[in-house]
Amino acid sequence: MAYEVLARKWRPQQFDDVVGQAHVTQTLRNAITSDRVAHAYIFVGPRGTGKTTTARIFAKALNCAQGPTPTPCDTCDSCKEITAGSSFDVLEFDAASNTQVDKIRDIIIDSVSFAPASARFKIYIIDEVHMLSTSSFNALLKTLEEPPKHVKFFFATTDPQKVPTTILSRCQRFDLRRISLREIVGQLEKIAKAEQIVIAPDALLAIARGAEGGLRDATGALDQLVAFRGKKIAEPDVLAVFGLVAHQTLEALAHAVVGGDISTTLRIVAELDANGKDLQRLVVELLGYFRDLLVCRYAGDAAVLPDLTEEQIAQLKTSAAALDTDKLLRIVELLVEADARMRYALSRRTLLEIALVRGCRAARVATLDEVLRSVQAARAAVGAGGPADDDEPPPALVAEEPARYAAAPVPRTVAPPPAAPPPAAAAQDDLAKLVQQWPKLVEQIGGVDLMARKYLVDAQPASVVGDHVVIAFDPEFAGEVANVRNPRTQKVVQHVLREALGRAVAVEFKVGAAAAAPGAPPPATVAPAAAAPSAAPKGAPKDKRDWHKHPAVNNVLEAFNGDIGDVRQ
């Protein structure tokens, strides 16, 4: 007798045998019991979750000699024929190979009016129904809406978005979900025991992980492993055959990333690549691990993590408690981006390494909330009479991070104080230099910002006071001032003037040629007095655009090629 693969041998024959789809099977049983069977059903779900199997069991239940019954006997001629796929009254075909409208007419439309040969109902099971052509769907519409009483339609599809709404609206829809790891492991244990296969629990878990919610894939993988290793299987056998990564290795890689350990991260990736692991699959599993970390941080219990053991949940809770959520989300974003790009990349390893290195750096960079807390703590210390000189460092930004991240403290950037204003003569010389070179400077600005050149030709440098430059517009062109008061133009003008004057400056656009007296202090912000951490500094700019005029802020923006996205006081 020819060998029968495990997936076919262990295919469910009763509603109770269907794994993980109780919401579907219970509804169908109730429909049969209450005599509320519709004329058309569509089963939707990922591959290997039981769509076609459920349709076959439903067909047996309706045509069983003892039925309609929710528990077909599997012994009558009708049940045997449906199980063997030889029933004249249960026609099953694949829409992917019968897309033409002529095939639909031959198979369904021309024969639908004939009574069943021997069974109670004539049933059409169409697999992958979304593959039918538009003409085929149109030809099927009328028959599907008002079929004869002896006809039932069962559709199955993995892509319901491609099925016209006119078809969907005429069917009762059942969505089959991915089968959980625990349910797959339980079914594999049952099969292994019956087939006298000795398999380690870690190996069963690895098979279930690789199946991605499809029981048929898991059963097929078990069959392949038996052919590879015989009836004694360990976890390394599963990892070697299917290119999966051990759970311990996955945890080690994730911990290296969140710990900012670039060296360990690259070493693990190199080892996995040398062992022939699927790097695309590695990214997916890393995403799943970080997803579990996020879930554990906010709702870490077995109800939201049904696929994990209590020990795994406890370990995830410990790791999640020591992580900053913003950093964790940034790492997830990088992995999502890498997953999308790796599908079309020639060098997947390089792309993965770059993403993980960026993830390591993101784990070690201080977040905005940490910076604000540090600034507020420093202001509170100054207000309380604490040390204020630059030699005394502020509270460490990594003080609230776990001890294992303390080896890489976030560097403190101290904005230099505004340079002392040059003498009046020097200010006049700088102003004269700018006035003389202004046409050339405008051309340089226009090379980067074309619209800025259009407006700045009508302006003129009016004063240079310290690190503060005023560009004045004639009242006739007062309406053009608003067009240059934007962050992009501010940065371009400041960059060009810095090259011309040899130092960083802040730029202000005004209407009128009135210039500040040489040597007068620039309109900078007043140093904040000692106040509570939540109080805004006295004299601080009220508008985000005003911060671009502050020399210290401008120095930081130039150094990091950044911009002001938000202002909190």
Structure, explained:
The chain has helices spanning 6-9, 22-33, 51-63, 77-84, 101-109, 134-145, 165-168, 181-194, 201-211, 215-229, 235-242, 247-258, 262-274, 279-299, 310-321, 325-342, 348-364, 368-383, 424-448, 450-456, 481-484, 487-501, 551-560; strands spanning 40-44, 90-94, 122-127, 151-157, 172-175, 198-199, 232-233, 459-465, 468-473, 506-511. The radius of gyration is 36 Å and the shape is elongated. The chain starts with 5 loop residues before the first helix and ends in a 9-residue tail after the last helix. Residues 387-415, 417-422 and 514-538 have low confidence and may be disordered. Helix 3 (51-63) runs antiparallel to helix 4 and helix 13 (262-274) packs antiparallel against helix 17. Strands 2-3-4-1-5 form a 5-stranded parallel sheet, covered by helices on one side. Strands 8-9-10 form a 3-stranded mixed sheet. A two-stranded parallel ribbon has the order 6-7. The chain folds into 4 domains: 6-175, 3-Layer(aba) Sandwich (Rossmann fold), CATH 3.40.50; 181-242, Helicase, Ruva Protein, domain 3; 247-364, Zinc Finger, Delta Prime, domain 3; 424-519 and 542-560, GMP Synthetase, Chain A, domain 3. It contains 23 helices and 10 strands.
